[in-house]
Amino acid sequence: MKPESTNTPYSDLFREIGMKLKFSADRKLADVELNGQQGRMIGYIYENQDRGVIQKDLATQFNRKGASITSMLQGLEKKGYIKRIVPENNERQKNIYVLEKGIALIEEFQDVFAEIEGNITKGLTKNEAEQLKTLLTKVSHNL
């Protein structure tokens, strides 16, 4: 473990944990040429496509800029995981849907992310895991 900065120990730990989580997810999803963010995005689209997911929803959900979301969607579309359709009643937006190829990956993603979630709380008691979730929720609301 690296020595933490005396000025920013919490930020340093969050950054280190975030990088480890991203690396772990990306490594597990590399076989299908996706990264963890794209995997979570496909899952979110699938779970919410009945209500009409649009790019703005993804930018809000994943706290990303529009250009970043556009790039990710273009990659997912090019690989045949999603499609974007302009609805008849609103030609200014595109609803996003997961295609069969993407649906086949969702179950695999769920297993990957469940394993990562398990690693986060490995070694913690059930009570400690709940406390961690409560504290992290508070921290998230503070930011």
Automatic annotation (TrEMBL):
Superkingdom of the source species: Bacteria
HTH marR-type domain boundaries: 10-141
GO terms assigned for molecular function: DNA binding; DNA-binding transcription factor activity
Residues spanning the membrane: none
Record keywords, A-Z: DNA-binding, Transcription, Transcription regulation
InterPro entries: HTH_MarR-typ (IPR000835), WH-like_DNA-bd_sf (IPR036388), WH_DNA-bd_sf (IPR036390)
Listed name of the protein: Transcriptional regulator, MarR/EmrR family protein
Origin species: Listeria riparia FSL S10-1204
